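Components:
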Amino acid sequence: MWRIPPETGLLLVYLIGLAWLPAIQPLEVSVGKTSSLEALNGTDVLLPCTFSSCIGFDNLYFEWSYDQNGTKEELLKGTIKSLGMEPRVQFSTDRVVFAGNTKLNNISIILFNIDFEDSGKYTCYAMNPREKYRDHQAVFTLTVVSQMKVVDKTLTIIIASAVGGVIGLIIVIMILKKLIVFIIAKTREKNKECLVSSSGIDNTENGLSGSKPDTKATPKA
Ligand SMILES: *[C@@H]1O[C@H](CO)[C@@H](O)[C@H](O)[C@H]1NC(C)=O
Ligand SMILES: *[C@@H]1O[C@H](CO)[C@@H](O)[C@H](O)[C@H]1NC(C)=O
Ligand SMILES: *[C@@H]1O[C@H](CO)[C@@H](O)[C@H](O)[C@H]1NC(C)=O
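Structure:
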């Protein structure tokens, strides 16, 4: 009946693989979806960072640094013995403080009294001895401004990405629909002979017309 083309199997394997991917992911560090921020000079800013690891961690090493046009300037580094344990800060400049939560794998910091020179890239790095010293890092971009723009840029970005997301979704749905229609058409094509032979049987019986007024003339040649 329904013979599934081999491409479908491959597609399924791919989709299942994608679905399983997050579950087998090793140490990962993230500075959030936005990963950049505009902040007013003279204020304190939170530089966000979280990590995740599917198998947990022991003595996780973490480090925040600033990219001083090419060279790395360390801001804060330390270790976390295990989940929920207070971090052991090994080094920190007097302008930053640990602001995370080790119960939530949160290793954010606060940078005090920012100035224009603080604009740039901040790297959050982590290394997990339990995962054979696997490491990962993420970069957060800070832009220090003297005045916040009145127009809410984030809202524009949210709207733009929402619209983009919806359009993307529609495109994906359209492609999927095309693909499904194509697969169905292909399958139908293969089963055409069967369909034709079964529908070819004529079920109308002859001679069942009971009320035929014209019985007088039945010319038989
Ligand atoms: C921000 O920088 C401007 C220009 O250097 C300065 O006049 C202003 O006082 C600063 N604002 C704060 C809050 O430090
Ligand atoms: C590096 O940055 C400093 C300011 O932080 C600047 O004075 C210097 O010219 C920069 N060096 C290079 C090579 O761009
Ligand atoms: C991490 O901690 C900071 C400070 O407590 C908080 O503002 C931030 O939302 C937390 N991030 C996540 C992803 O929970």
